[in-house]
Write a structure and sequence with these properties.
Number of strands: 9
Shape: globular
Number of helices: 21
Order of helices and strands: HHEEHEEEEEHHHHHHHEHHHEHHHHHHHH
Number of domains: 3
Largest sheet: 7 strands, mixed
Helix content: 55-70%
Radius of gyration: 23 Å
Distance between the termini: 56 Å
Length: about 500
């Protein structure tokens, strides 16, 4: 293959060609690059024995990408990682915008760089100025509700967070300081528990803290009291289970991603990350209320961070595709619809474990050690359910797209941010498809509820439920016998 061939393929978004070019630009065998493309964002991982030099490598890659001009890439995210480590040592996100310089009439790149600590803007005169985290405005504004009032609530929650972000005076130091204090509370809560401490440190505390600040504690507590009145004889764990089911249904049906091309199978599989994030934080607070906690007490903030670390901060959760919690989210970020259920249940399970352990403060630290192990096991089981859910969802997609095969849909699913485990399972079964009944036999009752809700959402997307789609939904209904409407 000639260099011209490689350049042409790279411009068309071929990641193998892009990887080849990036390695050529770096000209350093000790820092091999890996690339992947999700929607309009190019991810580049630079892995080396020692921490790679961020200040020199990022501008080099940026300049070459500008010159290359990949039409499908609007932003790039670059990570520097030591070989064998799970977490990157640094990361930068760049939005690539070509603007006309009025002084020189030369097109120059105006790049917004988002890092895990602050946001800087490279201006045309090379001066650096600290910016407010306004990306949160566009990020949460991307949530589009499809479930009536629930969708509207998710949008309002996102807009509130965005407004809080924009309202920070000066730079991000105030929010960062507060987030650091909350994170310190979380670390103090878990005590001498190294795995859980690492999980908490891996979270993006600035972003998570902004979400926590926007929880409507009055509304959250009122919804819990209503459930308790409806189920007066149930224990806190049972009330929490009702809350988890409700959120699992809502998380998979409220925030259709606006960044996915309509008509693609991928569009049916993803939801906007903001919708899930808002619902997840609210769930943690609601479970605290179910266990009799005062939601207005500032201690809940540190506890929420600890629970996020316990539930989705471990290595297994990150490998499952829930690592978005660790980084600064970007506008249009998406998560697989079935991953919503995994995240909701994992956080709900962790919150129950935490508040049960909290009932005996003297043994809290020791109990959380076991809770960390149990959370990892729970995530592993949930990932198995996620793989089955996604394979069943392919059946409803195929029912609505009779002209497509599993093999034809697979590339679209790879762009839909499904978990790696789900993609591998679907790809492995392309030549020997498991029957719908076989898959339904493997779904447990909790995951059956959001599965049915997602199938109904997919079938309703075009406003017409075909006979084939109706048959799939009917099969799921008969097999699982769950009432989504009653849970809502």
């Amino acid at each position: 293959m000639t260099q011209l061939d490689i350049l042409e393929l790279a411009k068309q978004g071929d990641t193998n060609a892009i990887t080849t070019l990036v390695n050529q630009w770096l000209n350093s065998p000790s820092i091999p690059a890996k690339t992947s493309l999700k929607q309009d964002c190019l991810h580049i991982v630079l892995e080396s024995a020692k921490v790679s030099e961020q200040q020199s490598l990022v501008p080099l890659i940026h300049d070459e990408l500008i010159n290359l001009g990949i039409q499908s890439v609007k932003k790039v995210k670059i990570y520097g990682k030591e070989t064998g480590e799970d977490f990157p040592d640094w990361q930068q996100e760049l939005e690539l915008k070509v603007q006309l310089n009025p002084h020189s009439s030369i097109a120059q790149a105006n790049v917004d760089i988002v890092s895990s600590n602050a946001i800087t803007k490279t201006t045309t005169d090379s001066q650096l100025t600290l910016q407010k985290p306004s990306f949160l405005g566009s990020f949460f504004g991307a949530v589009s509700g499809t479930a009536g009032a629930v969708g509207s609530a998710a949008v309002q929650a996102g807009q509130s967070v965005a407004g809080a972000a924009v309202g920070i005076s000066g730079a991000v130091s105030g929010a960062a300081l507060q987030a650091t204090q909350v994170a310190g509370q979380a670390l103090a809560i878990v005590g001498n528990n190294p795995p859980l401490q690492v999980a908490i440190k891996s979270l993006n505390k600035d972003w998570l803290n902004l979400l926590i600040q926007q929880v409507d504690v009055v509304k959250a507590e009122a919804s819990v009291r209503k459930l308790q009145q409806e189920h007066p004889n149930e224990q806190p764990a049972q009330i929490a289970h009702h809350l988890m089911l409700q959120k699992a249904v809502l998380a998979g049906t409220t925030g259709l991603a606006s960044s996915v091309v309509p008509g693609q199978a991928a569009a049916t599989f993803v939801v906007d990350w903001a919708a899930t994030a808002a619902l997840s934080v609210e769930l943690v607070y609601q479970i605290a209320a179910a266990y009799g906690m005062d939601l207005k007490d500032s201690k809940r903030q540190g506890e929420a961070v600890a629970i996020f670390g316990l539930g989705v901060g471990g290595k297994t959760a990150i490998k499952a595709g829930l690592g978005l919690l660790r980084i600064v989210p970007v506008a249009g970020a998406v998560i697989g619809a079935s991953s919503n259920a995994v995240m909701i249940y994992a956080l709900g399970h962790a919150a129950c474990q935490f508040y049960q352990a909290k009932q005996n403060p003297l043994t809290l630290e020791a109990t959380l050690v076991n809770a960390q192990v149990e959370s990892e096991k729970y995530i592993e089981a949930a990932i198995s359910q996620e793989k089955i859910m996604d394979q069943i969802l392919v059946y409803i997609v195929l029912a609505g797209n009779p002209d497509k095969s599993w093999k034809e849909i697979l590339p679209e699913l790879q762009a839909a941010n499904l978990s790696p485990a789900s993609i591998d399972a679907i790809a492995a079964n392309i030549k020997s498809l498991p029957s719908l009944n076989t898959l339904l036999e493997q779904i447990n009752s909790d995951f059956a509820v959001p599965l049915l809700a997602q199938c109904q959402r997919i079938a309703h997307l075009d406003g017409v439920i075909t006979l084939a789609e109706a048959k799939v939904i009917d099969s799921i209904n008969k097999k699982l016998n769950c009432d989504v409407a009653a849970i809502k």
